[in-house]
Write a structure and sequence with these properties.
Layout lengths: L18 E3 L1 H7 L2 H4 L7 E3 L7 E4 L4 E3 L17 E3 L4 E2 H11 L4 H10 L5 H4 L7 H12 L4
Antiparallel strand pairs: 1-2, 2-3, 3-4, 5-6
Helix pairs in contact: 3-6, 4-6
């Protein structure tokens, strides 16, 4: 993929604004054979839900088939992982909302984050904390802020 003339912050497939990721995040997420293909350049995570692109740079991209884990923010399946540090799937949150009318996952995960018990920059393919994604899911399921 040659990316001349395009905004390097935008996904070449869906146009979503990419989130900068570290080499450490990439090395943890990509399948081993692809690690040799990493170039010394800035990579971004594509947050586009339906987009197949997971990581992109000015000159190349890696898709869902190139990463070792399912990218939960890109799919709506109940088994899709939302929190990689504490192994929380979309369905876990959906089930709690069905049972209790609300979700406590964001508050429980926030407590763990405050204790320093997370490694989002490594485990989460986006390289960022999952709390925003969990709170958005909770809000969408309940119509409230948690």
């Amino acid at each position: 993929m040659e990316g001349k003339g395009r905004d390097p912050a935008l996904c070449p497939s869906c146009g979503a604004r990419g989130i900068p990721v570290t080499e450490r995040t990439l090395r943890h997420a990509l399948k081993k054979p692809l690690l040799r293909e990493l170039r010394e350049e800035a990579y971004r995570f594509c947050p586009g839900r339906g987009c197949n692109v997971v990581y992109f740079s000015q000159k190349e991209f890696f898709g869902r088939e190139d990463v070792r884990v399912r990218v939960g923010t890109k799919e709506a399946h109940p088994s899709a992982t939302i929190c990689y540090c504490f192994d929380v799937a979309r369905g876990d949150i959906e089930d709690e909302v069905k049972r209790k009318g609300r979700s406590t996952f964001s508050s429980r995960i926030r407590e763990e984050v405050e204790k320093g018990n997370c490694a989002c920059e490594v485990r989460n393919p986006s390289g960022r904390c999952c709390l925003r994604d969990i709170m958005e899911l909770e809000k969408g399921l309940t119509g409230t802020d948690g």
